[in-house]
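We treat protein structure as text, and this decision shapes the records that our systems exchange. Below, we set out a record of this kind in full and without editing:

***
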Amino acid sequence: MTWAIGDLQGCFSSFMELLREIEFNPSTDKLWLAGDLVNRGKGSLETIEYIYEHQNSIVSVLGNHDISLIAAYFGLKASNETLDPILNSPRVNELVGWLRKQKIFHRDTSLGYCMAHAGIAPNFTINDAIYYANSIENHLRADSGAKDWLKGMMQTPKKIKFGTTPKENEIFALSSFLRMRYCFEDGSLEMTQKGSPSETKGLVPWFLHSKRKEIKEKIIFGHWSTLGFYQDQNVTALDTGCVWGGRLSAMCLEDGRVCSVLCG
């Protein structure tokens, strides 16, 4: 079976409990992880080590917290007490090197699903998503230039618009894959609001934008803990706030079953 799981954020014990609950067998099953593998949770090192050791059975997309780890590794931003064990590990080069090779966007037409940590910008076609994801992945994987490229991407404007300069378009694409929640009517991204749709007026969730381009596959995403589990005919949101004391959730892609565990 293939199970998609929401944001782990280093909640290793909850991750292991969920795998027991779904009876995950790495010899026969697959996991899709929706990003934010690490950070904030106390078991970030154990989490990334487990995923690394079982990488043949796991597809991971990068989340904003995973990019924060890469940025801290490059010395572009400060670390913290939950990332320090990874950065101080004797395997740090191996683990971060592997992390830099993970996907931004994953698609499986046979299963009818695709996945990005925060979603796909409403003005992107599937070909746009593939193009910009490939470009970002190539930058992060480069033997030289990855640090300088990432430094140039670390901008946090309150509003990000597509269709300006090539660099700004890359910032838009990276932000949409990693940090997007709400959009303005023109499709530009609003980057400050984190509340649930019921609490936020005057903005539209990206997946409900009236001009969102049609994508055949259903989109799996995480990132939005205040949204919680959400599902309609186009998307499934799986961040149910584990690191905040909520739940860790998984969905079987073959039959739609949903399973979750309380986080402690």
